[in-house]
Each structure stands twice: as C-alpha cells, then as structure tokens.
Design goal:
By secondary structure, the chain is an alpha/beta fold. The chain contains 17 helices and eight strands. The protein has an eight-stranded parallel beta sheet with strand order 1-8-7-6-5-4-3-2. Helix 6 packs across helix 8.
Length: 457
C-alpha cells in the first residue's frame, strides 16, 4: 500500500495544473474551518507523510532511525521561513541551537562510518541553515547591492580586469560617491551573469546606493554574531552546516557571509558549506573564484552543489526588472556545467574542498563516483556526500547506500500548517525534478505488479 501511495503522489506532482493551483487551493481551504480540518487530514495522510518526516522532533527522529538502518543519513530541516520581526529571529536562533544539540555526536564528522556494514553509526551529519531566518528588513538586499556596486568599482573602463575596490573615475562627475561598507573594502567579488542585478549598475546607468548607515552596520554585526553562535554550537556538537542559497537578489550577501564564516571555521575541516546553484549563468566563475579565495587564505571550501531551486521565480523577476534571465537556457546545459563542477572540485579535493552534492540525477552521481574511484577515495570518505529530497529518487538514494556511499535524505519537519506552504514552494520550484520522476514511477509500478503477481500464486 505504501508503494502504491508513493506512485500516486509522484504522478499527481507531475501535473502542472496541480502545481500551479496548489498554493491558492490550500490558502482557500484554510479560511473555512470545516474545510480546513478535512483538507489538513487529507494532506497529512498523503503529501505530508510522503515528503515530510514528522510534525515534531520526536516523530522526525523515528524517521531518521528508519533511514539509518538502511544506510542513509538524514538532513533534518525545520523548514524555517523568513523572519518578520526581531522576536522571530530570536525564536529561530533558539530553535536552531536546540536542534543542533539534539543531534550532538561524539563521532567526528569526517570519520563517520565504516564500509563493513550497511548501517551507519552517525544518523545526522548536516543541518541546513537559512540566513533570512535570522535577520529582518532589507539588510541582505542592501549588502548584495553594495557587492554589485563594488563589482562596478573594480572594473574601470581603462582596466576591465582590475580587482581594485576603490571608486573609479567614471563616478567622479556624480554628486554622490558612496564609500563601501567597512567589511567590503578589502574584498573582491567577480562580476557574473549569475547575479543579474549587476546589469542595473551598468557603466551607462550607474547610481551608487545610498550610504551605509551605523544602524545597518549594527544589524550586520548582529547577524554575523548570531550565525557565528550557530557555528560554535555546531562545532561543539560535531555537526556541519549547509548554508541555503537564496534568490539572486540576495545571493551576493550569502556568498559574503559564507566566505567570512569559512575563513574562521573551515581551517582544519569543513564546518560550513556554501550552496552553488549551477543553473545560474557563469556561476562556475564564482565557484572557481571562491576556491582561489580558500587556497589563498588557507581554509577548506565547503561546497553544496545543486542545480537550483528558484527557476520560475528568477525568470519572472528578470522579466519584471527587464534584465537578462540569470538561469541557463536548458536543462542539458545545466547538467553539463554541474558535472564539470564536480570534476573541478574533485581535482582540488586534497586538503582544499569538501563536497556535498544535492542531486537527483543518476549521471551526475556516476560522474562523482568515477572521480572518487580515480583518486583512490573510499566510498565513505568524509569529504564527499550525496543528498536527495525525502520522497524523491529513492532508487538513487538506496542504490548509493547499498554501495556504502555517504548518502543523505533532506527531511522537512514541523506542524503541517507551517510546513505545507514551504513544501508547496519546494515542489513548485523543483518541478523540473518532478518531471523527471517517470523512471522512478515506472520502477514502482513494476514492483507493484510483481508483488500482485506473486500474491496470486
């Protein structure tokens, strides 16, 4: 019955009309109490149970144990949304600290499991972290705008390859020339189509951002201290952190915080991993630059490599702002750059890189496994990990588990009314992944037919 339900749910998730209308239908159902209770009960026993680990930490731990016995580690994700006020940032911080504490382990994260048994000793190695849960207002957007501004400041017309962060001459005729915030004055971020806002600061139409204020500097320092506290807790508990990517309007600020935190916490082993979305044009340049930064400053570059999760919203935003869509033109192009990124990172794995691959693509997993084999790396080498979403691509997950690779399932958890809006967005933004589940559904249906046939004997 469980297999049949999974097949039906994945088939439903492939329907464009359901994906497009799901959020509206859900919001409407919550306005009428009797409909809300009925809808919640249906969702709980279908989509929620398929894609989520539980409504609380205890339920989630039972799911984690089930995966552990099958050789799969877990990524518990409380599905925290953006903070709307200071009280929520404090609440989100305390929840994160408690979550990390609840998975505290005496086992070192880079020496986690033996290949002699399928079962694993350490069920949780990573926990996702989302910066927008710990700050309010426009802080991350402002930091991103200043980074885009610094990219223009580093490319004067006379020397387009310059890496200077001083204000160039082409701003000298303007009444307002804005100094960079202190934390950006000695940093360099290469210009890239991965961040389309860069086009808004073109040489022909460049308006410097408003001056950085003392209040913003205080908010910046507060956010940095908050995330640093989370890193300290994770380090004490032998847990690693996966820093979630954001929309491109905010992503430059995420790159900045990741760089600052990795300089401090990734000296001896990778504690914090930054997410690189390879469906973004020219993002391979940003990845290569961050690798050089890590080499230059003597820390390990922790990389979570994904294809991307904001395809539809990025296209809509680019159209509204009349800038080039930052997303690559085809899935095939994204696949090519994703696999090339795997090879590049594997070439630098020795003392330089720790890699977590969030992928539902069999070919990409095969590329990574071949690259590991070329270098004589064990399947449970602590520098390389794979991950998939709960409820999706179980054939790939358990295939890797059977071969003793470090494989993880992302497990969203929380109250259904809190998690389901988040889950709908994740399903919508991963529609391209869901469209590729035909093979998984076919395998399920074959297994259902086989069991039915055996039952008749």
């Amino acid at each position: 019955m469980e297999l049949l339900n999974a097949s039906r749910i994945l088939t439903l998730c492939k329907q464009p009309a359901l994906l497009a209308g799901g959020p509206g239908l859900y919001q409407f159902s919550q306005k009428i109490p009797i409909v809300s209770r009925f809808a919640t009960a249906i969702l709980k026993n279908t989509f929620f149970n398929h894609f989520c680990a539980g409504e609380n930490l205890e339920e989630t731990k039972r799911t984690i144990e089930q995966y552990r016995r099958q050789g799969v580690q877990s990524l518990p994700d409380r599905s925290t949304e953006d903070a709307n006020n200071d009280a929520e940032t404090v609440e989100n911080l305390n929840r994160m600290l408690r979550t990390i504490e609840s998975f505290k382990s005496s086992i070192d994260s880079d020496n986690i499991n033996s290949v002699s048994t399928k079962q694993i000793e350490k069920p949780v190695t990573f926990i996702p972290i989302k910066l927008t849960a710990y700050t309010t207002g426009n802080l991350l957007k402002r930091i991103s705008n200043f980074i885009l501004y610094s990219q223009i400041c580093s490319q004067s017309p006379q020397d387009p390859n310059s890496s200077s962060t001083s204000t160039p001459e082409f701003f000298s005729d303007k009444k307002q020339v804005t100094p960079l915030p202190p934390f950006l004055q000695n940093e360099f971020y290469p210009a890239s189509k991965a961040f389309p806002g860069f086009q808004n600061f073109s040489l022909e139409n460049s308006t410097p951002p408003k001056p950085w204020t003392p209040e913003e500097q205080s908010a910046y320092e507060k956010l940095l201290a908050t995330v640093d506290k989370i890193c300290e807790q994770a380090s004490n508990c032998n847990i690693k952190l996966l820093l979630d990517a954001e929309r491109t309007a905010l992503q430059p600020s995420i790159v900045h915080f990741a760089r600052v935190l990795q300089r401090k916490w990734n000296k001896n082993q990778a504690l914090i991993y930054n997410t690189f979305q390879m469906y973004l044009k020219e993002n391979e340049k940003n990845l290569a630059h961050e690798l050089e930064e890590a080499k230059k400053n003597g820390y390990i570059l922790g990389v979570k490599l994904v294809r991307g999760a904001y395809m539809e919203s990025e296209a809509k935003t680019a159209k509204n702002e009349e800038v080039e869509n930052p997303v690559r033109g085809s899935k095939e192009e994204t696949d090519e750059y994703y696999n090339e990124a795997i090879k590049m990172l594997m070439e630098n794995i020795e003392g330089r890189v720790a890699l977590f691959m969030g992928t539902h693509n069999l070919k990409s997993a095969e590329v990574a496994c071949r690259e590991m084999g070329k270098r004589g790396m064990g399947t449970r080498d602590g520098r390389v990990h794979f991950g998939q979403l709960m409820g999706m691509c179980d054939d790939l997950t358990f295939g890797l588990a059977n071969k003793r690779y470090n494989i993880h399932k992302l497990l969203p958890f929380g109250k259904i009314n809190d998690v389901f809006p988040y889950l709908l967005r994740r399903v919508q933004e991963n529609s391209s992944v869901l469209s590729g589940t035909s093979r998984e559904i076919e395998l399920m249906q074959r297994e259902i037919a086989r069991r039915a046939k055996e039952g008749k004997k």
